[in-house]
Amino acid sequence: MPEPRFWETKSLEQMTGPEWESLCDGCARCCLQKLEDEDTGEVYYTDLACRSLDLASCRCKDYAQRTSQVPNCISLGVDNLDALQWLPDTCAYRLIAEGKRLYDWHPLISGSAASVVEAGISIKGKCTTEMAVPSDQWEEHLIDWVQIG
Predict the structure, then answer these.
(1) What is the domain extent for residue 92?
(2) How many domains does the chain have?
(3) pLDDT (tens digit, 9 = 90+) per residue, 99-122?
């Protein structure tokens, strides 16, 4: 069981496995397909969710096997924190790494997983699966509502 407010006293590297996993707010923004500008390196989000994402629950259909089933899926850990650059600016992993506080809607603060949806942070009801759109049409699905700050 995670310690109360552990995210305020521990670095990401110091967290236990359950503490690390509890940081995920379930917004699924990281599960949206992204396009990278080859010239600038800038990352753009689409409204197309990974084929393994359950759009109703905003959770991976097979979390334990996700990286073997989806080749470009990144298993975020302390060993690859440099990947935080592409994470949404609302992501707890990114916020903690940057020395920032969690938002009030985060389930660890609010006590409710529903607060992510209520705050409009979740992708629930805003996206479709990547399988519904040919990859050569993904540019038509760029969005700007993922980053808020």
Answers:
(1) 6-141
(2) 1
(3) 999 999 999 999 999 999 999 999
pTM above 0.90, yes or no: no
* CB-based contact 25:121 (threshold 8 Å): yes
Three-state secondary structure string covering the chain: CCCCCHHHCCCHHHCCHHHHHHCCCCCCHHHEEEEECCCCCCEEEEEEECCCEECCCCEECCHHHHHHHCCCCCCCCHHHHHHHHHCCCCCHHHHHHCCCCCCCCCHHHHCCCHHHHHCCCCCCCCCEEHHHCCHHHHHHHECCCCCCC
Residue 39: inside a domain, yes or no?
Answer: yes
Q: Contact 53/40 with Cβ under 8 angstroms? A: no
